[in-house]
Each structure stands twice: as structure tokens, then as C-alpha cells.
Specification:
Structural class: alpha+beta
Mean pLDDT: 86
Bound molecules: calcium ion
CATH class of the largest domain: Alpha Beta
Strand order of the largest sheet: 7-6-5-4-8-1-9-11-2-12
CATH topology of the largest domain: Alkaline Phosphatase, subunit A
Helix content: 10-25%
Number of strands: 30
Number of helices: 12
Length: 679
């Protein structure tokens, strides 16, 4: 009895100590409660963009205020260096290579995975998704990304993963007037939305999140709101009042748009925080903020004004600049204002952390989960991350896909290993992130044992992902198909067979994968592309081509041309042929977001010199004469002149014959608008 009393007394002492001297993070814990959960994510925002990470130019007063009241993660990682895979990781806690989302616009969040929304729904939560989805197509009819994105195989809407309410786009839309994106509309629970789509996109989507939250609170239900902003992803556009803020300070147009759309986003975050306080639910709401990957562009310029802070590399790379992103958690019930942590954490941790807090485990949960519960961190008992964070992305050595970084990385409490494991050019790099966060000094040679043990973890990770891809983590039968071959395997069949497309989550950023525009039918059902087996395609495909984000190039491909007359596109040769009638002509629709002067390069074939043609955009006209390539089947690039496109936006280019030489005007592969150097 005495023993029991002592034990009780000890326990009471322990409780008293607990209450009087709580750990660094605990305020007034209420373990049985189900906190509301809001996952906010900016798109392509760099670590150095928000004020709380040191930015002195971009105005983010609401995020800065939130940061003061939050746990600031000094080392927060996105699960991947590009959009779609990063988002999959945030919703499932599992690395995207386990379910075939290799890069942006590839694969989809498999139904066999369990998302945070599905899990919380079983616990009485109401669930909503607002903004960019990027984890599947939203209609089986088409993807605005073009025929390369298999809209049927990848059809996966938010409600198929547990979101009862959703107001979402398949991929990026302009950050101002998102209605401009006719090929990529907002859907509200499966129906194309047409109302309240003008002005700031962050406001447009917050206008939908707020009533959802109000209703959940009125119904006394805990809620999960996943708010995935489009800003500051391309097309980066800010409204006049936001541009003016920065124009007045002398910043150029690209800066005005980039900074302005972040400030507009920040205002909506302030609006949300105020709502939570007004409704009396701020205390027990976990309000997270992060970005899905690092800032866009090889370097700063145009509308690519994002800052990676002190880090090397940017979006698409596994250098810190691609994956080390802003991270905040505001949760007054459990997190003391002014808390910080230097322990590496990840978007992969959202899922296990939330399930740990709510205190349940999903039946049939696919395992392993790559993230960890951060509850011990909140309780002050986590001194180190218990398991390292694995990364794998598509890429290689070319700067377009991975900006020069190796394809795999492992981050532990101190070191980061980067490796091109299995590639012929395999090279291992090791950095001590505690003393060298800028990744300047490779110390692999000095620490072969560290390299070896970290590499072993990545080898095991890769083998584990392969098992996941084959469906071995699922309790239900799963038959993998050709798109479930990991990129590291021979026979990996990406893009060409319609599984997805090149790794870029910009809207049509690769100009040779033109977006289809529902011009003729006026709805989501745009013209179905001709099957590859047919020799020729009908005229008037009407696809909009977008300027490439990185190179600034506008590639007006034959496949995207609208044909007028009897002209035919020949898919097997990717060219326009049978151009014997001088009355027949071509046009293309395209959009640019980096205005300037462009050299017009026509790639065409003719056996003899002399056909004359005219290229026109608006009232600018260029007359040029075809110089022979020697053969209609052989392309030769020729410069027709220069165009000055002074504004961002939509244009039409026409190519009209003036006279033909011999039997035909020419065969045509493409018209390229190549940015002139003085852009
Ligand atoms: Ca992104």
C-alpha cells in the first residue's frame, strides 16, 4: 500500500512538474481532442521568399505574424523537388516513388494508397481540398497537358481520395484571373466552375475554403482543409494594386508580378488566420505552411524571382535549393510562440504526425511510411530525427531535369549524401549540412564509411520502393502495368507511351507538348487527337502552345497548327505535308509570359529555292523566301525575320503562302520563336 501511495505521489509530482515546467513546445495539451488540420502550401516558393526567412523586399506581414506564433522549422524538406511527387508525399507520408509519381504530371495518387483525407474522414472529420491538385486528371475526357498525359489512366479526383469538398485545378493556373486557363478549369466537386474566378487566384480559392471551414465549425465537426495555392508558380501574374506596390519602389515588371502575387497570397493567409480566431477555433487548429519545392528557373530573371536563400540549386534539383523549403506550424494549444527547431523534418511527416495526434491507425495502411511522427518534437523529447529522409527524382546531368544535381539524396541529422546510383557517371557527394548548408565542399573522400552506410540505406530504399510499385504493400490485389516500372530499371517507358510527360509542372512549359484548347466545342470535350495509326490528322486541332519557362522559346509545332484548306498533319512524320494549294494556310495560338523580341525560325523542306510566304502576328508581317533543303522530306531551319511581342498574353501567328515554287509550297515541321538576346 505504501508502495502504491509512493507511486501515486510520484505520479502526482510528475504531473505537477509537467504542468509547471512544460517542455519547450507544450502549452496546454488536450490529448483526447481532435484538432482541426490545415495544410497550406505555396507553389514554387523559395526558402528565402517569405519575410520570416529573411526576405526584406517581398511583403509577407501575415506569414511573418504567423511565424512569430509558430514553431519555425529551420530545416523543412519537401518530399520532392517538383510539384506532383511532393504533394503525394504530403498526403500519404510515403515517398512518391512507391506509387509511380516520378515527376510532375506523371502517374497519379493510386487508389490503393491512403491519404490523410481518407484517414481523417474515418475519424469524423470533414475534408476539403482547395487549389492546385496535381495528383491526377479531373476528367477522363482530356488533360490540358495534352495527349501525352493519359487522362483515363491518371483520372484521380480529390473525392476519390477522401476529400468531400473540393475546388481544384489539375495543374497550374495564372495567379491572376485563373479563368484564363480554359484548358485547365477549376472544378467544384466534379463540375466546371464558372463563377467568381476573376482577380487574385489566392483570393478565388480562399473564397471557397472559408465557407467550408465556417460550415464545419457550425456543424461542430473537426475539419481537414488542404489549401494548395498556385502562387508563385508560372504563369506569375499579380493584380494592378499588387504590382504597383513594387513598381513604386522601382522594381521591374517580372519582380512586380512575382513579389505582388506572394503579397496577395499572404493577405489571404491573414484572412484565414483571422477567420480561425473569429470562429474561436484558432487554438486547436494545426495550421501548417510550406512550399512544394524550391524556386523556378536556372537563375533569377523575368518572373523567376524566387530566392533559394543561402542554398545551392533551385526547383528540380536535389540540392538544398530544390527541396529545403519554408516550414511553419502554428498551433496555440500545443506550440509555444517563438519555437524553432533545427531537426530535419519533411512534408512526409504530416501524415504520421496527424494520425499519432488523433490516435488511430488505418486498417490496411500500406507500409512502410517514410515520414515520422513529430509528436515527440512537440513534446520536447525528440533530440534527433530517428530516420533519415530519402529523395529520388527523375533527371540526369542535364540542367533541364535536375539542374545538375544527382538523382538521389539522403538527409540525416548532419550529413547529406547525393548520388547518381547506378548511372554510368555515378559520383557520390557528401556534405556536412551543419557546417556547410550551401553544399560547397564535398567531403565524400574523407568519410568513405559514412558514404557507404548512407548509400546502403538508399539501396534498401530503392528496393523497398520497387516492392511498393509492384503493389506488395497493399492488402487488396494490385496488378502493376508498364507505367509502374521504376525509372532506374531498364525498360522504363515514360512519356512516349502516354504514361505521362517530361518533368515540368509548369503549364505547358514544354512548348512541344501543346495544350489542347476546347475552342470549337467550347467545353472540356476538346477535339480528340488523331490515333497514331492514321496517316493524316484532320485540320483545326486548335491547341494552345505555351512559352517554355526556361529557354523562353515558343515552339509552334506542326502538330499544334490549325490547318486551313486541304492541308494535312502527318503524325508519323510530325509535319504538315501536301501543301500544293497556295490558298491553304496555317495558324497557331500561343501564349507568352516573357515578352520581348523573337527571331522567327521556320523549319521546312523544299527541293528547290523560291516559294514565298508571309508570317504575321497582329499587324507585324514578315515576308520570306524558302531556301531549298534539297528534299521535301528533309527539314532545314531558316530565319524569316524578327517579331517584337511586347506584352504577356495570347497571340495568333499565321503562315500564308504568297507563291509556290514547283509542285508545292513546302513541307513544314515547326515555327520557332527564339528569344533574341536583347530580351
Ligand atoms: Ca511546384
Amino acid at each position: 500500500m505504501k508502495h502504491v501511495m509512493n507511486h501515486l505521489r510520484l505520479s502526482m509530482v510528475a504531473v505537477a512538474v509537467f504542468l509547471l515546467a512544460p517542455s519547450a513546445f507544450i502549452n496546454a495539451a488536450e490529448p483526447s481532442a481532435k484538432p482541426n488540420v490545415i495544410l497550406m502550401m505555396a507553389d514554387d516558393m523559395g526558402y528565402g521568399d517569405p519575410g520570416f526567412n529573411g526576405n526584406k523586399i517581398i511583403q509577407t506581414p501575415n506569414l511573418d505574424e504567423m511565424a512569430k506564433n509558430s514553431l519555425i522549422f529551420q530545416r523543412f524538406y519537401s518530399p520532392a523537388p517538383v510539384c506532383s511527387p511532393s504533394r503525394g508525399g504530403c498526403l500519404t507520408g510515403r515517398h512518391p516513388y512507391r506509387y509511380g509519381i516520378w515527376t510532375a504530371n506523371e502517374g497519379h495518387l493510386r487508389k490503393e494508397e491512403i491519404s490523410l483525407a481518407e484517414a481523417l474522414e474515418t475519424q469524423g472529420y470533414v475534408t476539403g481540398h482547395f487549389g492546385k491538385w496535381h495528383l491526377g486528371t479531373l476528367t477522363t475526357n482530356q488533360s490540358g497537358k495534352g495527349p501525352g498525359r493519359n487522362a483515363v489512366r491518371n483520372y484521380l479526383t480529390p473525392d476519390m481520395h477522401g476529400f468531400g469538398e473540393w475546388f481544384s485545378t489539375e495543374y497550374a493556373v495564372p495567379t491572376w484571373d485563373p479563368i484564363n486557363s480554359t484548358v485547365n478549369p477549376y472544378y467544384h466537386v466534379g463540375k466546371i466552375e464558372t463563377e467568381n474566378l476573376l482577380g487574385d487566384d489566392s483570393r478565388v480559392l480562399m473564397d471557397r475554403a472559408i465557407p467550408f471551414i465556417r460550415k464545419a465549425v457550425a456543424d461542430k465537426k473537426p475539419f481537414l482543409a488542404v489549401i494548395w495555392f498556385h502562387a508563385p508558380h508560372e504563369p506569375v501574374v499579380a493584380g494592378p494594386e499588387f504590382r504597383k506596390m513594387y513598381a513604386d519602389k522601382g522594381y521591374d515588371e517580372g519582380q512586380q508580378n512575382y513579389y505582388g502575387c506572394i503579397t496577395a497570397e499572404d493577405i489571404q493567409i491573414g484572412r484565414l488566420r483571422k477567420l480561425l480566431r473569429d470562429l474561436g477555433v484558432a487554438d486547436n487548429t494545426m495550421l501548417w505552411f510550406t512550399s512544394d519545392n524550391g524556386p523556378e528557373g536556372d537563375e533569377i530573371g523575368g518572373t523567376k524571382q524566387g530566392s533559394a536563400g543561402p542554398f545551392r540549386g533551385r526547383k528540380r534539383s536535389l540540392w538544398e535549393g530544390g527541396i529545403h523549403v519554408p516550414g511553419l506550424l502554428e498551433w496555440p494549444a500545443r506550440i509555444k510562440p517563438g519555437s524553432t527547431t533545427a531537426i530535419p523534418c519533411s512534408g512526409l511527416d504530416y501524415f504520421p504526425t496527424t494520425l499519432d495526434i488523433v490516435g488511430f491507425r488505418m486498417k490496411g495502411q500500406p507500409e512502410p511510411i517514410d515520414g515520422v511522427s513529430l509528436v515527440p518534437l512537440f513534446e520536447g523529447t525528440m533530440k534527433e530525427r530517428p530516420v533519415p529522409i530519402p529523395f529520388e527524382t527523375l533527371g540526369g546531368t542535364d540542367t533541364k531535369t535536375s539542374r545538375g544535381s544527382p538523382r538521389m539524396a539522403l538527409v540525416d541529422n548532419r550529413y547529406k549524401l547525393l548520388t547518381d546510383m547506378g548511372n554510368p557517371s555515378e559520383k557520390d557527394l557528401l556534405f556536412d549540412l551543419l557546417s556547410d548548408r550551401g553544399e560547397t565542399t564535398d567531403i565524400a573522400a574523407q568519410h568513405p564509411d559514412v558514404v557507404k552506410s548512407m548509400k546502403k540505406i538508399l539501396q534498401d530504399f530503392r528496393a523497398s520502393c520497387k516492392r511498393s510499385l509492384e503493389g506488395k504493400d497493399y492488402s487488396t490485389p494490385f496488378t502493376p502495368d508498364q507505367y509502374d516500372i521504376p525509372p532506374s530499371e531498364p525498360g522504363f517507358a515514360r512519356s512516349k507511351n502516354g504514361g505521362g510527360e517530361a518533368g515540368d509542372d509548369s503549364e505547358g512549359a514544354k512548348a512541344n507538348k501543346p495544350n489542347k484548347k476546347a475552342k470549337k466545342t467550347g467545353g472540356a470535350k476538346s477535339a480528340v487527337p488523331a490515333p497514331a495509326s492514321s496517316d493524316t490528322a484532320p485540320s483545326g486541332q486548335g491547341k494552345v502552345t505555351f512559352q517554355d519557362d526556361d529557354s523562353g522559346l515558343v515552339n509552334l509545332a506542326a502538330s499544334a497548327a490549325i490547318t486551313h484548306g486541304d492541308l494535312r498533319y502527318i503524325p508519323s512524320q510530325e509535319k504538315i505535308g501536301r501543301w500544293s494549294n497556295e490558298k491553304d494556310w496555317l495558324s497557331w495560338e500561343f501564349q507568352i509570359h516573357q515578352p520581348g523580341k523573337f527571331k522567327v525560325e521556320v523549319s521546312c523542306g523544299q527541293t528547290e529555292d523560291g516559294s514565298v510566304y508571309e508570317i504575321a502576328v497582329g499587324d507585324q508581317k514578315l515576308k520570306s523566301t524558302v531556301s531549298a533543303s534539297g528534299d521535301f522530306k528533309k527539314a532545314k531551319a531558316q530565319i524569316a525575320g524578327e517579331l517584337n511581342l511586347t506584352k504577356s498574353g495570347s497571340y495568333t501567328l499565321t503562315l500564308t503562302p504568297v507563291s509556290k515554287q514547283g509542285q508545292a509550297v513546302m513541307t513544314l515541321w515547326s515555327v520557332n520563336l527564339v528569344p533574341a538576346n536583347n530580351r
